[in-house]
Amino acid sequence: MHDNAGRAFSHFTPNWFAAVMGTGIVANAAATLPLQFPGLRLGAVVVWMLASALLLVISGATVIHWVQFRTAARGHVRHPVMAHFYGAPPMAMLTVGAGTLLLGTDLIGQPAAVAIDGVLWTVGTILGLASAVAIPYLTFTRTDVAEDAAFGGWLMPVVPPMVSAATGALLLPFVPAGQARLTLLLACYAMFGLSLIASLIVITMIWTRLVRHSIGPAALVPTLWIVLGPLGQSITAANLLGGNAHLVVEPSWARALEMFGPIFGVPVLGFALLWGTLAAAITLRTRRQGLPFSLTWWSFTFPVGTCVTGVTGLALHTGSLALAALAVVLFAGLVAAWLVVTVRTFHGAIVAGTLLAPPVPA
Question: What is the reported pLDDT for 5?
Answer without folding.
Answer: 52
